[in-house]
Design a protein that fits this description.
The structure is a homodimer. With about 160 residues, the first copy, chain A, is α+β, with helices and mostly antiparallel strands. The first copy, chain A, contains 5 helices and 4 strands, in the order ααααββαββ. A 4-stranded antiparallel β-sheet of chain A has the order 1-2-4-3, with helices on one face. In chain A, about 35% of the residues are buried. The mean pLDDT of chain A is about 85.
Amino acid sequence: MADAVLFEFLHTEMVAELWAPDADPGSGGKKKSWSVLEGLGFRVGQALGERLPRETLAVREELDALKFLCKDLWAAMFQKHMDGLRTNHQGTYVLQDNNFPLLLTMGSGSQYIEEAPKFLAFTCGLLCGALHTLGFRSLVTASVTALPACKFQVVMQKS
Amino acid sequence: MADAVLFEFLHTEMVAELWAPDADPGSGGKKKSWSVLEGLGFRVGQALGERLPRETLAVREELDALKFLCKDLWAAMFQKHMDGLRTNHQGTYVLQDNNFPLLLTMGSGSQYIEEAPKFLAFTCGLLCGALHTLGFRSLVTASVTALPACKFQVVMQKS
């Protein structure tokens, strides 16, 4: 019984709990669910960031910080590396995971693609929170074209 | 960076989110928070239970099931064993953890003892959910006398 499944099960149940169907469409329920999950992820990302080895905290190059997310952070969370990292060299980065573990339970293809965003909110916040601890302000969004692959887009904010 | 901290950080933030101060004391807010966290734990415990090796699922003696929680389940979650297991031989079991990881951030002693229950609800549900998968109905409660030690009381329900 692997420890990693504990995190994945807890994440799944937390999404189910916080993404409850909203009785009043006018109250911005889904938007609120997204930001609650994103906020949770941000704080967990910050906390994970504070556990980093000192050498990593000395990272000051954007690209090194992104490589850290793709390798060390992904390994700690999902026991693997991100599958791809691209940049336009102007502060925008696209991180690709071809088998994102938090989407694996949804099966493959596009049938349930509308349900995917709720499983990405926590991780968007987490990436943003980890970058924050490394000293970078960012906006992180996610997109899915075919489950269980997804892309995270990180846009660095100039301070 | 250990994977285990990921679960602990997520648990901490989930408690903070779901145990929000309640504006209306009449609405049973804290009671609802407890049952939401307990329900989340129950479902995670069931899911973990379904990942057990086949030999374990063949457990049919109460005491074997409890030993499984104290050793295998605790090791998978917290990388250690429970510190003590007692029974009155009439279906009541007391599981003692002298350094319960989900209470460690609260410091020692009795200063914050009133805050402790919210950090135990998820685990009470989880123990109950894992027992459910093993084929046992139970009621699980927790108590704290001095942080970070705690006791889980399991009362087996006759079917």
